[in-house]
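Retro notes
What went well: the complex prediction finally ran end to end.
Inputs used:
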Amino acid sequence: MAHSVILTTPMPTWEETVARYGLTKAEEKFVIELVDSKVSRRRSGAVNNRRSVPEKQVKAHVAGNGKIAGKKTKRRRAA
Amino acid sequence: MNIPYDSEFRRLYLAYITGLIYLGLDPRATIEISGGRNRLEKILELIRSCRYSIHDLSRVRVDRASPRTPRFNMPFELGLAVASSKLDATPHDWFVFETVHRRVSKSLSDLSGTDPNIHHGTVEGVMRELCNSFVRRSHHERFSVPQMMKNYRAVSRLVQDIERRTRAGSLFEAGAFRLLCSAARRTAASSQGH
């Protein structure tokens, strides 16, 4: 046929989806938790944020001295 | 959706489901129909209950399992949809999807004069052809293929959990199909900010 049709029907709500697929309470809970844990949190950045570089390492890198920020040298400790 | 149910087609099956749901459509498939003597009537009912049907004629080759045969289900169901669109009072639009250019004109020459949607056997191709077939605009812009691909990748991450939960041998089973569609709907809603 190869033509375009314009969709004007409203997007279904979650309640309509649950009714359409006849999800039980347990199935609905499973789907919500699954999507929230693997999609929604990832999109919000919550998962990626956990992988951020710790602040101390960033400071050491910025200083360029190879030392971890706040660590005393032998000389300073001796003094 | 009138598509082949085999493991080779799994990625495209997922693409059709996520793409159609992203566009706000409600995918129906013969997977939902239980077996029995009235299977043909149920298929016809299913076609009649749908405003649109998509017929993927990618599998025109002879399969490996003995006895080696081509699969006639897809072209047969396309015939039912064409008849329904011509004879029934309720409107019905059908779309033919294919992998290879100009193959339909050889495998099903009765369709000459209709242009199939060629997806080249890729997920992105399916999304592109769905966007060509169905137009829906959000508040500011038309739904796009990159958005649909993001959604596809998100839904792909859920598949293992759904298979584990339903203990399904494959995604081509009624239980897995139900959970997959509802998870795809929720994923689409989250990306569209509903």
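What we learned: The CA atoms of residues 114 and 136 of chain B lie 23 Å apart.
What to try next: split runs per interface for comparison.
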